Amino acid sequence: MQILHLEGTEDTPKIILDKNNGIFEISGRSLPEDSAEFYQPVLDWIDEYKEEPKNATEFVFKLEYFNTASSKLILDILSNLEDIEGVTIIWYYHEDDEDMQEAGEEFSELVELPFEFKTY
Amino acid sequence: MKYIYELHKTMLERNLILVYEGEFTQEITKSVLAMAERNMDSMGEESSIKRKVFNVMVECLQNIVKHSEDLHAKKENKPTAIFMIGKQEASYIITSGNPIKNEEVPKLRGKLEQINGLDKDGLKQLYKDIIKNTNLSEKGGAGLGFVDMARKSGQKLEFDFQEIDSNYSFFSLKTTIVKE
Prior knowledge:
The structure holds two protein chains of two kinds.
Chain A lengths: L3 E3 L7 E5 L4 E8 L4 H17 L5 E10 L1 H14 L5 E7 L4 H13 L4 E5 L1
Parallel strand pairs in A: 3-4, 4-5, 5-6
Antiparallel strand pairs in A: 1-2, 2-3
Helix pairs in contact in A: 1-2
Chain B lengths: L1 H12 L2 E7 L3 H17 L4 H27 L7 E7 L3 E11 L3 H12 L3 H14 L11 H9 L4 E6 L4 E11 L2
């Protein structure tokens, strides 16, 4: 399966979706002008991955900041991942960033997926 | 030339560290954010406050970008808006002002009054309701911007509408971020 790899910019996150190496990660800042357009490739990639997923998928969010339009798309990504067996969400937040911790907790309440919280 | 000095004095009196007036685009948003970040960094601002200020700024700026695109799409004149950051002893004050159609005023006022009527838990519930049940608008807005600004600031949103003419009103918004 193709690797989806996008370098981060000042308003878009770094994305690595690599089935062979078991890396599924979205990190950095997310405030794109059009969040739906930006995240569409991610949703498409997950749709394809869904057909033949690994036994376990650790999907990492390590976001420094995201805007509200991105939060809607993060929920879409999580909802899409709900259809896959063996997915765990690893939600990173900076140790003094309560808002990012709370955001992760809220997402965990909105979807049926196990969340692990880690600080950096 | 007197207006230059007057403007300078006003900015000092109100402790305005950044004022932008003009067209709003994503590129301008990024520039304004970068300037404000550098400014806060050079003042040695705490990272938790920086994050909150950044957060409120993004929602505020992107609201204006989306809204002005909308006005412009309707073949109106290209609207300009104003954005300011003030720094007081114990708080940051983020203000913006932009023209909106008169017919949009009641709905916007209602939304802001609803948000201001809610406490922390009420805002959290509203946020979850909107994110679960609303699709992105064609402008790409999630309808969550004001709710998020109220949540991140922990303060009421102050707002005002001043009629410009029979078609437009000027919408002013003020969010305060208190340093702990």
